[in-house]
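fyi for ur records
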Amino acid sequence: MESPTRLYLLRHGEVEARYHRIFGGRIDMELSPRGHEQAKALAGWLRAVHFNAIYSSPMKRAQQTLAPLAAHSPAAPRTMDDLREVDFGAWTGLSWQQVHEQFNVSAFDWLHMLEEGAIPGAESAANLRARVEPCLRRILTECRGQTAAIVCHGGVIRMLLAVLLQLPVPKLAHFDIEYASATVVECLPRRAEVELLNFTPWRDVP
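which gave:
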């Protein structure tokens, strides 16, 4: 029987306070002090895992989350530009309340609107998938039967799960993907199984 490929989908840590509860997307923000601590706690939990490969978004918040993990891994991280966060178009930089006030929609429906291509100037779910899925297929090919980490963003992780689990993007609204969380998926050619969802090891740090 073929050995599964195990993917650790890792979201970046908490961002600077001024970007909390806004649609950050392509804004290249940094981690908050708490975010750096979360990244260290996540890396500490992952020290027992042997990664054959580590992939990352090029954005600062992902690179800063990657740093403590890469410091203790023999695998040299590889940056993939197409693992960057979703472009939210006209919503970029707006709070959830501002989106409601300016566009008369609920920001909680963002995945549905992404699916419909209804956010002005934003990527559609189809466009997001068109750049993220090739990254996933390359990783699965390069790491077949091995273990890989992917350090990226909440929107990207939801798309990766949508592809792996063959789910419509709006269904991923049911999955919480918190800062500095780990989601682990075991992949075989004809199926994928979630072994761990949205685990946040930093919650156990005093």
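Residues 12 and 70 are 14 Å apart (CA to CA). thats all i got for now
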